[in-house]
TrEMBL record:
GO terms for molecular function: ATP binding; ATP hydrolysis activity. Pfam families: ABC_tran. Coiled coil: none annotated. Residues 7-243 form the ABC transporter domain. Keywords: ATP-binding, Nucleotide-binding, Transport. This is ABC transporter ATP-binding protein. InterPro entries: AAA+_ATPase (IPR003593), ABC_transporter-like_ATP-bd (IPR003439), ABC_transporter-like_CS (IPR017871), P-loop_NTPase (IPR027417). It comes from the Bacteria.
Length: 265
């Protein structure tokens, strides 16, 4: 069966202060898959993610999201595209002054004309999907780190998006809670028939959730494939990253300047 692209990145270049943070990235994400972008700190993962959600515009190249060329859209057109995807931020990014229910309801109140009674029902449904029904009246300060991530995920799916982006979803969580978040990502991708794009350097998560994986290094995609293909890769960079070895193409025992050059090119 032919796969349907939902994200297409073509020859993407981004330069900051004379340095090429992204250097000719080509990437395709297909409908319904969980696509994981991995790589070391400073490799350009977050910059690439920001291009996918339209926060950054490339210096050259293009980013296509659900058939729209983001580089050509005006602000109103971009706002319409943003309604079709959700985002789980690394810190969950909940509003401390709002209850759990109010946080999840926020995109519905901002972008729809639904009655409060309908919004309340949707909020309960989304919280139930992440295992937090009945927590509507709690404040974020009353939640653990893992619970905050789950509330953030409920908010990310509040508008029934076609794509959900995840920025380091297991960062700062213990192994058990990380496993819970990974299971939620996999389950929701299947149950809701959405596309998931996950940026992470957590190798346990990568191999638990990924359908396909790409590795970014020095602003370029250096490997791409299924998790089985990545796990068996002969690429030295990939093998070092997957195994977490100190010895390999990226050498840690250098002075700080040389190590940074290894990371960011």
């Amino acid at each position: 069966m032919e796969k349907t692209p939902v994200i297409e990145i073509k020859d993407l270049v981004k330069i900051f202060d004379g340095r090429r943070v992204l250097n000719g990235v080509n990437l395709t994400v297909y409908k319904g898959e969980t696509f994981v972008l991995m790589g070391g700190s400073g490799c350009g993962k977050s910059t690439l993610l920001r291009h996918m959600i339209g926060s950054y515009k490339p210096d050259t190249g293009s980013v296509w999201l659900m058939g729209k060329n983001l580089t050509t859209l005006n602000e109103d057109q971009m706002d319409e595209v943003k309604k079709k995807f959700g985002m789980l931020f690394q810190s969950a990014a909940l509003f401390d002054s709002m209850t759990v229910g109010e946080n999840v309801a926020l995109p519905l109140r901002e972008h729809t004309k639904l009655d409060d009674s309908v919004i309340n029902i949707v909020v309960k449904m989304k919280l139930e999907l992440v295992g937090l029904r009945g927590f509507e009246n709690l404040m974020p300060s009353q939640l653990s780190g893992g619970m905050k991530k789950r509330v953030g995920l409920a908010r990310a799916i509040a508008m029934d998006p076609e794509i959900v982006f995840y920025d380091e979803p297991t960062a700062g969580l213990d192994p058990i809670v990380s496993g819970v978040i990974d299971k939620l990502i996999s389950d929701l991708t299947k149950k809701l028939s959405i596309t998931s794009v996950v940026v992470t350097h957590d190798m346990n998560s990568v191999f638990r959730i990924a359908d396909r994986i790409a590795m970014l290094h020095q602003g370029k995609i250096v490997a791409e494939g299924t998790k089985q293909e990545i796990e068996k890769s002969n690429n030295g960079l990939v093998r070092q990253f997957v195994k977490g070895d100190a010895d390999g193409p990226v050498t840690f025992f250098k002075d700080k300047g040389d190590y940074l050059k290894d990371l960011i090119g």
